[in-house]
Write a structure and sequence with these properties.
By secondary structure, this protein is α/β, with parallel strands linked by helices. The protein has one domain: Aldolase class I (TIM Barrel, Alpha-Beta Barrel). The protein is about 45% helix and about 15% strand. It has a 9-stranded parallel β-sheet with strand order 5-4-3-2-1-9-8-7-6. Helix 8 links the parallel strand 6 and strand 7. Helix 2 packs parallel to helix 4. The radius of gyration is 17 Å and the shape is globular.
Length: about 270
Amino acid sequence: MSRIGGAIDAARRDRRGAFIPYLTSGFPDLAESDRLALALCDEGVDALELGVPFSDPLADGPTIQRTTRVALAAGTTLAHVLGQALRIRARWETPLILMSYLNPILRYGARFALDAREAGVDGVIVVDLPPEEEPALWLKLQSSGLDTIALVAPTTAPDRLQRIASRARGFLYVVARLGVTGAVPGDSGVEPLLARCRELSPLPRCLGFGIGPATDLSRYRGLAEGIVVGSSLLDALLEAPDAAAREARARAFVKAIKPRLSALAPA
């Protein structure tokens, strides 16, 4: 079992869902981004998703777009993100997931998978690259020991869902609502999708897009093993006046979410 799968399984044994926060790597600058990531790990998140800044983030809503612009202005590249992963790994065993678009990976070059693994990365989400495309790249990622986490949505056709589920590793990232990221309610079709994912794969199911502190997690009891939260956390950081306040808000965010995760445990 991978480090990601082990962490989600440990949360299940604790009769709760796993919590995976998302940070835009390099926001608000390279040094503070490290401090925020380490603070989240210190608070006991189950895994940490690091967003690779990209100039055309089509799947991301206004909050992540805003933090992405700040990170790019600070000079953040994929190489910097791998450096951040290496520094986090020196301090924590928290599973690390890179969420990237395809372009930064192609620009980085053929060593990406190996370098990511050596930096301590455990899994990769390529937002705009379905598992049935670029099979050589997916194979290289998997053969390097990286979990290839795939996104599925309520609009994913049944036959395609089966193909994606058979090729994914780590967990299935279930998009809770259509459209871009952001803290708005999930779609009504997500519960049947979660049930279908379990029929097709033993992989954990983690909900993202539209998940935040106000989400009624009991709606997904027994249907999801974890949640991914990005925009709500980043909104809290964007509203903070300074670095100390941002770290305090990051820590408070984890403390507020963790008690609610038991709502995902099967009855």
